[in-house]
């Protein structure tokens, strides 16, 4: 999910390294009563926003503390950072996107998805009403702003193919964090990378009658938008880290339940950290987001068959050059409740 304003958040490598060293030092704790809390640094996919309701509800409600964890949620300088920094062990956990995790697996990054935070796709083709974009085929010949993720271009190619027009006719502009300003200023005709529960809410509130076309209605199969990622090799050889991941997911599940039970409280919690968003709009964004947190299979659970199908689709469409075994990139083994 991309921020609605142009401020990019930064974190120096030195600061991240210092945090990681502290986390490693603390991971020896068994999390039992009276033990020193185990430090866990989680790198978000972007700045705090409504898609992180479960995380901040767990933090504010004491669920991480009760699990023996001292969790620090941090924002990246780029949405691709979580996979890179989890893979190198610089941070303990990250938040990323299913398509990006698949690409990371093909590229042999040392990461695996361990739980779905948002178990449905949110990425959308979006435009203000006056732009004249009403269907995917209208992107032919149009200037389209993207967030800079590698999957943006891949999705546009797939959308063009599914809707029978030349992908090369799309003029693509990487606007980074400025998806919303790019649409409002008419720098671009449309964007790919905005979410219906955030940017869509903002445009509607401003009376701009947005067109919002989920990518899953434009030629992209369903997928898990946000997932929690861990370092795969460390899970296999470090029992303390595996226990930390299990406890983090269990506590996040409790936070997710809190957000669903009391969206008003979740909104208050988020208001204190989501400083890049209009406080007056946050309740509407939370209202639009809360239903998306519900996972019929249980919090965090991912459908490995669906992941296999998505990997196959990515390969068939030329979005990845090789396939990757599903179990290399996703596992439900660290979720508390088996379904």
From TrEMBL:
Keywords assigned: Signal
BP term (GO), one: thiamine biosynthetic process
Superkingdom, taxonomy of origin: Bacteria
Range of residues in the leader sequence: 1-25
InterPro entries given in the database record: NMT1/THI5 (IPR027939), SsuA/THI5 (IPR015168), TAT_signal (IPR006311)
Identification of the protein by name: ABC transporter substrate-binding protein
Protein's organism: Candidatus Frankia alpina
SsuA/THI5-like domain location: 49-266
């Amino acid at each position: 999910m991309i921020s609605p304003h142009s401020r990019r958040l930064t974190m120096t490598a030195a600061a991240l390294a210092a945090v990681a060293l502290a986390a490693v030092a603390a991971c020896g704790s068994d999390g039992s009563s009276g033990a020193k809390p185990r430090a866990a640094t989680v790198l978000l996919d972007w700045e705090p926003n409504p898609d992180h309701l479960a995380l901040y509800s767990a933090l504010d409600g004491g669920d991480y503390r009760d699990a023996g964890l001292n969790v620090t949620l941090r924002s990246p300088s780029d949405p691709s950072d979580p996979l890179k920094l989890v893979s190198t062990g610089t941070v303990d956990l990250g938040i990323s996107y299913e398509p990006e995790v698949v690409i990371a697996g093909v590229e042999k990054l040392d990461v695996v998805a361990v739980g779905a935070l948002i178990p449905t796709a949110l990425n959308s083709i979006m435009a203000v009403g006056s732009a004249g974009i009403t269907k995917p085929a209208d992107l032919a010949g149009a200037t389209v702003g993207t967030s800079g993720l590698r999957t943006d271009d891949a999705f546009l190619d797939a959308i063009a193919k599914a809707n029978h027009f030349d992908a090369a006719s799309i003029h693509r502009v990487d606007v980074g964090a400025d998806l919303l300003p790019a649409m409002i200023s008419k720098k671009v005709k449309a964007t790919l990378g905005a979410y219906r529960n955030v940017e869509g809410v903002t445009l509607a509130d401003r009376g701009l009658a947005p067109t919002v076309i989920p990518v899953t209605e434009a030629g992209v199969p369903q997928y898990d938008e946000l997932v929690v990622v861990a370092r795969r090799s460390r899970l296999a050889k470090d029992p303390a880290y595996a226990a930390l991941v299990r406890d983090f997911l269990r506590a996040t599940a409790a936070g997710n339940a809190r957000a669903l039970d009391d969206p008003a409280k979740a909104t208050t919690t988020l208001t204190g950290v989501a400083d890049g968003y209009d406080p007056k709009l946050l309740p509407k964004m939370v209202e639009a987001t809360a239903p998306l947190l519900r996972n019929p299979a249980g919090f965090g659970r991912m459908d490995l068959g669906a992941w296999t199908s998505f990997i196959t689709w990515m390969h068939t469409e030329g979005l990845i050059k090789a396939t990757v075994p599903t179990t290399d990139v996703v596992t439900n083994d660290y979720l508390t409740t088996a379904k």
